[in-house]
What we know:
Strand content: 15-25%
CATH topology of the domain at 2-145: Immunoglobulin-like
Distance between the termini: 68 Å
Largest sheet: 8 strands, parallel, barrel
Oligomer: single chain
Number of helices: 11
Low-confidence stretches: 1-16
Number of strands: 28
Strand order of the largest sheet: 13-14-15-16-17-18-19-20
Structural class: alpha/beta
Amino acid sequence: xxxxxxxxxxxxxxxxxxxxxxxxxxxxxxxxxxxxxxxxxxxxxxxxxxxxxxxxxxxxxxxxxxxxxxxxxxxxxxxxxxxxxxxxxxxxxxxxxxxxxxxxxxxxxxxxxxxxxxxxxxxxxxxxxxxxxxxxxxxxxxxxxxxxxxxxxxxxxxxxxxxxxxxxxxxxxxxxxxxxxxxxxxxxxxxxxxxxxxxxxxxxxxxxxxxxxxxxxxxxxxxxxxxxxxxxxxxxxxxxxxxxxxxxxxxxxxxxxxxxxxxxxxxxxxxxxxxxxxxxxxxxxxxxxxxxxxxxxxxxxxxxxxxxxxxxxxxxxxxxxxxxxxxxxxxxxxxxxxxxxxxxxxxxxxxxxxxxxxxxxxxxxxxxxxxxxxxxxxxxxxxxxxxxxxxxxxxxxxxxxxxxxxxxxxxxxxxxxxxxxxxxxxxxxxxxxxxxxxxxxxxxxxxxxxxxxxxxxxxxxxxxxxxxxxxxxxxxxxxxxxxxxxxxxxxxxxxxxxxxxxxxxxxxxxxxxxxxxxxxxxxxxxxxxxxxxxxxxxxxxxxxxxxxxxxxxxxxxxxxxxxxxxxxxxxxxxxxxxxxxxxxxxxxxxxxxxxxxxxxxxxxxxxxxxxxxxxxxxxxxxxxxxxxxxxxxxxxxxxxxxxxxxxxxxxxxxxxxxxxxxxxxxxxxxxxxxxxxxxxxxxxxxxxxxxxxxxxxxxxxxxxxxx
Length: 707
């Protein structure tokens, strides 16, 4: 019998001639050596381990079993070097040890996937259910694949390194963005990482600097109720290997190169690549779930458990990773380095990231060691790091997120902008706070440019078009009787639930889309847009499309005239933001009054107004707000009026020495609402129609500028 290789340039070697050596504890996983492959895994409580070598990914039985005893052990690491094998070799493990009270511990009937495997084979025969119970899963298991560990070629594709101040993030799903009617991606690449490359000109033209990809690490699509597939990917099966459904072809060795091809193309297009990563839980679920990888090596190491051995859960998915423990931290850091240094990505967004700050018994830590390790690691020093500041256990730390370099999603920004434009009471003061960079949330201290991610929508929730078209969620297609998804959306259908042919309703919705986008992009912070919001992509009111691999979860690639008009509006708005970036720099906190020294040229301050100049109305019933950015020497530079009231309102204007240009008026027809060339504005006041917004800019700031 022979060990088969996927790599055509390596000779096959008889298994009986394979030399077995003690090996080395580092590096973790399977790494090439001069005479074969070194294997190393962490299993602190194991008493014996078997390395299984398979002839192929679909082989139902191993071709060679290599036993590891105490001679192959260095502290918590088990290791062995096998001669005569190389790239493409498929392998798995059986781990032996004591069975703990309550059923926890080791299950040597299960073949385990190496947590450090950088490629995976065996998907065609894989069965999730076979990893549950006492019966062997050898014929239905996944196998690790030996790969290279080459570093990314940053010399020929350097990181774009956009400053936080000038970054605009676009969150997208690889599978959803690269398929659907009208998609500009070749058929053979649709739904894949490579399929994203033909869409890069679209993203550049829109004004995007950074893409944030929903999980692309291998996940279990079968981690879902019967009849459903896990589409979003928040069900990790590996923290190192790319997801096979996003690859072109069936060669697992090609996956890493395809990631590099995408990242190279993005870098050359000036676009950064961030990954949404899930380190807070795994697809193994609670103690009744499958034994696929981490659990089989040492569930008491990787998962937070009570004294009785019950899994503790602040992820909502059955388990919580014990990221406070040194061996777990090292595995997470190895994953981050794998994607950052070997595959070239530019940063990470941590799903439920605050859960990674919990210690034993889920106690919140003021100095979580995982984030300390990240911030001290030179390989990760030039990356963008972003986190959700909440978890399902109720922990919410926005301004005091326990990591200096990690930006946080500002959920309050999303909620308060929605509520203001919806017309809720008691929203003017909170709206002013969000437009000021949320000083009330950040303890009145300046927010550094990468500290606050502002957004209106994300994958989890309504799209922007649905936000103004539905009062409630419509998730029946998910098969859970509309119980899933958030019930608190601060959405408003403006008179009719869902699509409407009433011109008054559709026109009002169009104004609201522009009101919301303008409010976000003229506020301090790093803005994030959701895939397809620029062309009014709808999910039919479904606010939780985690299992919808169909047009509900796909990009809208056949826009009509109204869709294209919104895209043009957003393109021009992003150009305006970039042109005026110096005025909206979150590094420069704005005073709410001028400095006493009148000669301080260049000092900016924000002045709040209502319908009357310098008289903001903070009453609970108020729905109008205006503000101006003023230079202590030049006077007003920008004025913005916001009317969320049900009637038109007349606003007084501050006088502008050089004259105003009307840049935005969302009450005007598409195309005129944000024209390519701003028009002079002569009146001393501004009449804002119901639920509309107007922006004026001092003429010298846009001299000879075309948006």
